[in-house]
Design goal:
Layout: E1 3-8, H1 20-45, H2 50-53, H3 59-65, H4 68-71, E2 77-81, H5 88-94, E3 104-108, H6 113-116, H7 122-126, E4 128-133, H8 140-165, E5 166-170, H9 176-183, E6 188-190, H10 204-212, H11 217-233, H12 238-252, E7 257-263, H13 268-282, E8 290-293, H14 304-309, E9 314-321, H15 349-366, E10 370-376, H16 381-402, H17 410-424
Parallel strand pairs: 2-3, 2-4, 4-5, 5-6, 7-8, 7-9, 9-10
Antiparallel strand pairs: 1-10
Amino acid sequence: MPYKQTFENCFSSAEGKEQNWVHTAFLKALSETENIAQSLTVLKEDGRMPILELPERLDDLAALSEHPFVTDTNFSRFVVVGIGGSSLGAQVLVNIRNKDEAPYLHFWDTLDYHVMHPHLSGSKLKDTRFLLVSKSGTTPEILAQSLLVIEALNSEGGKAAVSDQCLIICEPGDNPLGYIADKWDIPRLDHDPYIGGRYSAFSLVGALPALIAGIDVAAVRQGAKEVLDDALINPEAAPRVSAALNHSLGDLCGVKMNVLMPYAKQLEPFTHWYRQLWAESIGKEGRGSTPLNALGPIDQHSQLQLWLDGPNDKFFTLIVNQEDDASPIMDVSIADNIPELDYLKNHRISDVVRAEAHATAKTLADRGKYLRCIYIKTLDEKTIGALLMHFMLETIFTCYLLGVNPFDQPAVEEGKRLTKMYLKGEE
């Protein structure tokens, strides 16, 4: 497995007293994950849960790899127009590559015009392809942005430019984004209607931008498959253990917040992806906990004081990358070898980051905080695939333990309806 997880204080109180009742509740919840795993296995084998089928598929990747958006080298810039699940999974995958690698990819996950405007005129516009993504084909933000893109391209190069420089991903059938594709002769790829946006990282929504960026998506899926296969047959698989623990800590210890803090800048989009996944999946019928995303070591200087000295109502997850970076050994002779810098001698930047991660973990543990550490050996495609699948499964198992549907989002739909009414002047 590309990662391992450890726990501190999850079966003892802040005062250090053994809480056998928490451990008992955990074991009960863990045993209940067996029935959930069996149900997921049946759904997977019957073809009724495509998110669990994707990790072992390669045929779709072969076709995507030959798509002009991937193979055509006439354009060096790409803009992914998507929001939420239509964007975050792709950002997670693309962000593990080196920033200076070509081609340039930018994600419009905002409606701020000052972010979009530079791509809509001049040489940037002529050198940019736009991937317009909305699972339903009805997302207001994406429709608004798509209209801006088409207007700019049409003004610059006519309908031919629109058709050549755009690609649309949406569900099959009639929907506004699909209508735009047909009217402007924009190539269109079908999004599987049975794959929810926040679970779509392994689908073409995540795979196509990743392939453009040169990511080995087959390796991503291989990492996901290892975690999935283990979770469906192993009673003590990591996602099942963490789901049972989440359920027990929430029910018995008053844990209301889940903090995810990786010590790797490349995993910052992962924390945003996790925040949506957990919040939209678990927050129903008055149940669930609030996800908080953070980044180490930055948030040691902003939130750690509260975490250490505030209420013990949080479950912390630190992700620690144990891989050495390519930075040089720090030369303290630059500062005349002053004694205050002795601790930096013969170390790289990655040594400092790891030391801070371990120091934060120990401080949290010593304060009796509920803590999980996830250790990875290297941040590559296989590892990111494993982490994505782990947290998907952890979320699914936890939701079923709580008795809520991990795949719908009924409360969100009302906001979408009201947005359209406000713009029509009907409210």
